[in-house]
Amino acid sequence: MIVAGDIGGTKTLLAIFDAERGPREPQRQAEYRSAAYPSLDVMVAEFLHEHADGGAARPQRGSFAVAGPVAAGRVQATNLSWPELSEDGLASALGLEGVSLLNDLQAVALGITVTTAAELVTLAVGQPVPGAPIAVIAPGTGLGEAFLTRRGTTWAAHASEGGHADFAPRDELEVDLLRFLLPRFGHVSYEQVCSGVGIPNLYDFFAQRGTGEEPAMTTAELAGAEDRTRAIVGLGLGPRPRSTRCREVVGLFTRILGSEAGNLALKVLATGGVYLTGGLAVAVAGELSAGPFLERLRSKGRMSSVLAEVPVHVVTAPAALHGAAVEGLRAEGLP
Question: pTM higher than 0.90, yes or no?
Answer without folding.
Answer: no
